[in-house]
């Protein structure tokens, strides 16, 4: 168990209140999950999903509200179909209402916008997710910006990102993967306050919101990217490393500070003749080297990946709770 003192309260208060409602601070519990120096994302995600299921039951009992999520998929991509099905299954298992809208590859942009607008006005839907990528003839930015900010379950809208960047801002939803990384830290007893964190990657989906979450948790943050000079020097100073580059096993163990914490967001397939599939999944960090140096590290797979869907459910629940304040 960790003892964080006063700074812990600040860190937890931010994470458990990703939206501005006062009466329903969703408790992403302070349970610390120990697995040696491995941060077991699968186990932590299971704990969170059980907590969410209980909160969903409470919301139904007390207020007659069933959190609802709609996923919109365009085309026949098998990977997208798999992701959407997994999200829908997880929502149903948590006791939520799940709606899947499947559209043909040649659907017009205006027709897709009509679908989004219908979901925006559907009281049964609290979160809307459009599965990317979309076909080339559709402007993804236009589609995503049409989602009502109070139903932006991915937390990618300009307003939600803007709220995240404000010192005292409370977004309606926080991007799922960065929020999942923060939960991995918290549930492993790691408080970022006062620590030097290095975020590798500056994408809108992971790197930039990750940096802002760490700043809100009182970490000193360095964002490194493809143009960063003397990368190894920055890495050597890092107490916490968040790797989100998309480069297989890019980060070497010799770059790391002894006792640091490594959260590996990357998931890459590399050839593996010993595997029946002909490949294996690896992260952006050389795991075998890094685990000899780091005090805690996420494996790939089984680290960050399971947390993303858990945080999607968390966001859906919070968006549903937020409707109560708007009605009162």
What's the topology here?
Elements: H1 6-16, H2 41-63, E1 68-74, H3 78-93, E2 97-103, H4 109-120, E3 127-130, H5 140-146, H6 158-165, H7 176-187, E4 196-200, H8 207-216, E5 220-224, H9 231-236, E6 240-243, E7 261-264, E8 268-271, E9 279-282, H10 287-290, E10 296-297, H11 305-327
Parallel strand pairs: 1-2, 1-3, 4-5, 4-6, 6-7, 7-10
Antiparallel strand pairs: 8-9
Helix pairs in contact: 2-11, 3-11, 7-8, 7-11
Short recap of the structure:
With 328 residues, the chain is an alpha/beta fold. The strands form three sheets. Strands 5-4-6-7-10 form a five-stranded parallel β-sheet. A three-stranded parallel β-sheet has the order 2-1-3, sandwiched between helices. A two-stranded antiparallel ribbon has the order 8-9. Strand 4, helix 8 and strand 5 form a beta-alpha-beta unit.
């Amino acid at each position: 168990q960790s003892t964080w003192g006063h700074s812990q309260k600040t860190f937890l208060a931010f994470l458990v209140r990703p939206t501005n409602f006062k009466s329903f601070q969703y408790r992403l519990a302070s349970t610390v999950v120990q697995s040696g120096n491995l941060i077991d994302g699968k186990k932590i995600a299971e704990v969170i999903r059980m907590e969410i299921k209980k909160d969903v039951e409470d919301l139904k009992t007390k207020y007659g509200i069933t959190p609802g999520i709609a996923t919109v998929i365009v085309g026949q991509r098998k990977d997208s179909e798999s992701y959407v099905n997994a999200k829908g299954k997880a929502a149903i298992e948590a006791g939520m209402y799940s709606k899947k809208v499947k559209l043909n590859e040649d659907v017009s942009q205006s027709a897709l916008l009509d679908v989004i607008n219908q979901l925006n006005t559907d009281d049964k839907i609290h979160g809307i997710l459009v599965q990317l990528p979309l076909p080339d003839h559709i402007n993804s930015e236009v589609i995503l910006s049409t989602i009502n900010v109070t139903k932006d379950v991915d937390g990618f809208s300009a307003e939600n990102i803007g709220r995240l960047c404000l010192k005292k801002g409370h977004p309606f939803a926080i991007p799922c993967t960065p929020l999942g990384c923060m939960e991995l830290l918290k549930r492993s007893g790691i408080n970022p306050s006062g620590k030097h964190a290095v975020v590798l990657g500056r994408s809108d989906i992971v790197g930039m919101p990750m940096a802002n979450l760490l700043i809100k948790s009182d970490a000193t943050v360095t964002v490194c990217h493809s143009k960063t000079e003397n990368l190894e020097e920055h890495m050597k100073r890092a107490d916490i490393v968040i790797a989100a580059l998309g480069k297989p096993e890019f980060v070497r163990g010799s770059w790391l500070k002894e006792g640091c914490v490594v959260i590996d967001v990357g998931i890459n397939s590399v050839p593996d003749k010993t595997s029946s599939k002909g490949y294996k999944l690896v992260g952006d960090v050389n795991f075998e080297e890094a685990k000899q140096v780091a005090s805690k590290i996420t494996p790939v797979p089984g680290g960050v990946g399971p947390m993303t869907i858990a945080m999607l459910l968390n966001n859906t629940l919070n968006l549903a709770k937020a409707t109560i304040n708007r009605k009162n």
